[in-house]
Amino acid sequence: MFHIFVCHCEPDTSGRGNLRLNSPAKVASALLCLAMTSVLQSLAMTVRSLARTQNKASLHQQVRHDIFEPMAIEEVIELLEQEYGPKEWQPDRDPIDVLIGTILSQNTSDANSGRAFASLKASFASWEAVASAPTEHIAGVIKSGGLSQIKAARIKQVLEQIEKEQGRISLDSLKSKTMAEAETYLMRLPGVGHKTASCVLLFSLGKPSLPVDTHIFRVAKRLGLIDSKVSIEKAHSLLQEQIPPAKVYQFHIHMIEHGRKICRARQPRCHRCILRGVCPSSLC
């Protein structure tokens, strides 16, 4: 509520149409009135400007909300296929190779883990030989992969447990099990979580289980496919439920490629993103 200040000035009887201020006190009063009027007018304009800005922001948010929700994963799959091409699912890799390779890939780059895996295969004639070797020797062989002591102990424990339970170091028996049964078995092995188990299921056993790495996790959150507060463990099941089984492999490959090339952790290239028209996090 603004108070109105009124200045009382006597009219000029000289005929010049001016107001006559006949004392210093009245002059001061008139100046005060003018100053207060100017302040009030400026304040009113500021309030109106803020109101207009707030209304525009509210409208902009409403428009973006209407445009980007809900997010359809089918559209993401289709657009990524347009960008990167279709990927054929050929689960033909040896399950033990994938299991050990995925353990070596933890907390390091693909290049480093690749070197460590190649060194391991070149240094031992079989997985049985790895299982019977001292942990220190295994660690020295896989040193290029980082965390070699931890990974060496884990690899040895995993191979020993599989040999004890299966009678040999092989996971071929999991091919005849359901995806849930095979996943349960794999996750009972030392140091094997959802991602590692899903890699074995997807790339070796022909079962459409989605491995979620840091790239997939980041891109999925930015797209609104999962809530930003969801853990990476929970993300596995939430994304798995949304994807048609036949598209799990392609989705996995495309999301990783997109995360590396475009939707990077720092300075994402939104202006080059095929998904910018449907992404609620787009900076464009």
Annotation keywords:
single chain; 284 residues; mainly alpha; Endonuclease III, domain 1; 2 domains; 2 strands; elongated
Descriptive notes:
By secondary structure, the protein is mainly α. The chain folds into 2 domains: 19-68; 95-261, Orthogonal Bundle (Endonuclease III, domain 1). The protein contains 12 helices and 2 strands. It has a two-stranded antiparallel ribbon with strand order 1-2. The longest helix has 45 residues, at 24-68. The chain is elongated and about 110 Å long. The model is unreliable at 1-19 and 55-68 (pLDDT under 50).
At the third CATH level, what is the topology name of the largest domain? Endonuclease III, domain 1
**Care to count the β-strands?**
2
Helix content: 55-70%
Detail the poorly predicted runs: 1-19, 55-68
Beta strand %: under 5%
Average per-residue pLDDT, rounded, comes to: 84
Number of domains as seen in the coordinates: 2
Distance between the ends: 42 Å
Return the string of H and E elements.
EEHHHHHHHHHHHH
Strand order of the largest sheet: 1-2
The largest sheet, given as strand count, sense and whether it forms a barrel, is: 2 strands, antiparallel
State the name of the first-level CATH class of the largest domain.
Mainly Alpha
Q: How big is the Rg? A: 34 Å
Which outline best applies? elongated
Oligomer: single chain
CATH homologous superfamily identity of the largest domain: Hypothetical protein, domain 2
Task: Give a concise summary.
By secondary structure, the protein is mostly helical. It folds into 2 domains: 19-68; 95-261, Endonuclease III, domain 1 (Orthogonal Bundle). It contains 12 helices and 2 strands.
